[in-house]
Amino acid sequence: xxxxxxxxxxxxxxxxxxxxxxxxxxxxxxxxxxxxxxxxxxxxxxxxxxxxxxxxxxxxxxxxxxxxxxxxxxxxxxxxxxxxxxxxxxxxxxxxxxxxxxxxxxxxxxxxxxxxxxxxxxxxxxxxxxxxxxxxxxxxxxxxxxxxxxxxxxxxxxxxxxxxxxxxxxxxxxxxxxxxxxxxxxxxxxxxxxxxxxx
Length: 199
Known about the structure:
Elements lengths: L4 E7 L5 H10 L3 E4 H7 L6 H10 L12 H8 L3 H25 L4 E5 L3 H4 L7 E6 L2 H12 L3 H9 L4 H6 L3 E4 L4 H16 L3
Parallel strand pairs: 1-3, 1-4, 2-3, 4-5
């Protein structure tokens, strides 16, 4: 990716990654939403969906030829080997799309919004890693409010993810979000400026 600077954004659920993305977009970064790409690569007629069909069988395909997300979820979330197979199948297609988008933009700075940045292996194309973290209790409260779920569900979701220390240890920049949204925006703006200015 000649003349491109690619940064990966990851972090805890409920930490404020969307707000950070907004700040970086306003600073002139191309934002690539890897979750959106993950949905696109498994659409009807795409090679990735055909491969999933071959690997997992007819039960994961609806009568309309789309991916049956609920059926797939039932398979992979009760069998870790099946989840690994799903991820190892999808991730290369996402990586290809990311590289293609980076090559086709005239923007110098790119931010990959990738909750599974490390798991997917896409961090290997990044010039730097940015994580967004917060206290566990704040994360639980934000997830409950954002997704309208119970505390138990929020704790379960958070329990399956890495903690703040994991992200801090693997990042070049860590934005801690234990305050209000204006403080988060200020921190994100400052980080974006630091990257653009090469500091």
